[in-house]
Amino acid sequence: MPEDSAPGIHDLSIATTEFVLTHETLAAHQGIDPAKYHRGIGQVAMSVPAADEDIVTMGAAAAAPVIARHGADRIRTVVFATESSVDQAKAAGVHVHSLLGLSSATRVVELKQACYGGTAALQFALGLVHRDPAEQVLVIAGDVSKYELGSHGEATQGAAAVALLISADPALVRVENPSGLFTADIMDFWRPNYLSTALVSKSESVAAYLQAVEGTWKDYTERGGRPLSEFGAFCYHQPFTKMAYKAHRHLLDHCGHDSAESTLAAAIGNTTAYNAELGNSYTASLYLGLAALLDAPEDLTGQAIGFLSYGSGCVAEFFAGTVVRGYRAHLRSDAHREAIGRRREIDYATYRELHEFAFPVDGGDHPVLRETTGPYRLAGLSGHKRVYEPR
Ligand code: CAA
After folding, report:
1. What residues are labeled active site?
2. Mean pLDDT across the stretch 337-354?
3. Which of 21, 253, 313, 318 is most buried (CB neighbours < 10 A)?
4. Would the pLDDT of 323 be above 70?
5. Which pTM does this prediction carry?
6. Which residue ranges have their beta carbon within 6 Å of ligand 1?
7. Which of 112, 200, 235, 238 to mutate to test ligand 1, by most ligand atoms within 8 A of the CB atom?
């Protein structure tokens, strides 16, 4: 498909939580050097949801400005990608659909394959828009990343959502064919239904990610994708921002290219600003990388961006997009910085209390304390049902 007629991302909006825990605070509690987090894994803070926040409230908060700007008349599909779903049967997107007052003539579905789910949603959306260019698809990717207290993964927790409006004539990024695909049955990171925190095989997860980089690139190249030298920047899934550097260095070395620090910084330096502050947001992480890149001052008009989406388990995809002329007029840079900057810093004891919070499972009425100052909240549980409301 010619680059100037491909469908793609028409709007992009992010949302996160009420609270933030800094790695300075976490390191002080653990009695370790904060440089391990700041320089070692490239993280400075993690978003922490209030008790009345979850993927639904973040997803609705991310999507509301998109609907306010474009209306919902052309949206006939909502796809919510997540691996921290709030119900085993009902799609989180149905709650969002209700909070946003979308038309009943809409299909709503939830997608899961670890952190890759957001890209699966994007690709399905592109297919729908290709079939009927009059339609737009609202893609929401949102997660709360939670590991056990004191585990290796704890410092990589985070929470955020991103809403993408996919259309035939996008204002931000056109998404190209082909994609490079890779799947391997591996247990590098997973969360059994009976656990609220994820399990990870620490070094295996990094190795699996790097293997997937090679695998997707091989398939992408064999299908006639662009040469590496044509890309102006690369967005990677960022479980922690240092991982993007590891992955890009691996790709450059694999292809026999120079992988000096300056080369890495030029290719991915502008993609890490949001993830370093928010922590791992699983399905949203790659698209927070794109948001940070587009919001940076450099003009990317016409440039090719490489996207590497990785979901443990594992499924991965490499694809390219080109930045549309005039994109800067459609960005939400101020709102994005406001969403990150407005979070209230909490101390370790408050973080621990929120981390350990769990609803009783007795089916009774359990209203939640009003904490969030975001636009939507989880009012409580009643009869095993989650009840959401505008704040
Ligand atoms: N100053 C500077 N750097 C320091 C330091 C200090 N004082 N102390 C340590 N470091 C460096 C280390 O040298 C190391 O650097 P390299 O990776 O370049 O070798 C880095 O900090 C991390 O140190 P450790 O490996 O000792 O840290 P750790 O044992 O806590 O494990 C981790 C790190 C594996 C990322 C762990 O946080 C983890 O398990 N995270 C969850 C799993 C994960 O994110 N895996 C990534 C791939 S899977 C995926 O992408 C899907 C997903 O979203 C989960």
Report:
1. 83, 115, 237
2. 98
3. 318
4. yes
5. 0.98
6. 33, 35-36, 39-41, 115, 152-153, 155-156, 188-189, 200, 202, 205-206, 209, 237, 239-240, 243, 280, 282, 310, 312
7. 200
Mutational pocket test of ligand 1: of 186, 205, 250, the residue with most ligand atoms within 8 Å of the beta carbon? 205
Place of tokens 């398939």: 219
Residue 31 CB coordination number (10 Å): 6
Please tell me the predicted confidence (pLDDT) of residue 5. Answer: 86
Owning domain of residue 41: 3-390
Full DSSP string of 125-157: HHHHHHH-TT-EEEEEEEEEE-B-TTSGGGGG-
CA-CA distance, 57 to 267, in Å (whole number)? 33
pLDDT digits (tens, 9 = 90+) for 147-196: 999 999 999 999 999 999 999 999 999 999 999 999 999 999 999 999 99
At 1, the pLDDT band (50, 70, 90 cuts) reads: very low
Kindly give the number of the ligand 1 atom that is closest to the alpha carbon of 237: 50
Considering its fold, how many domains does the chain have in total?
1
Q: Which residue has the tokens 């994109």?
A: 327
In CATH, what number is assigned to the domain containing residue 215? 3.40.47.10
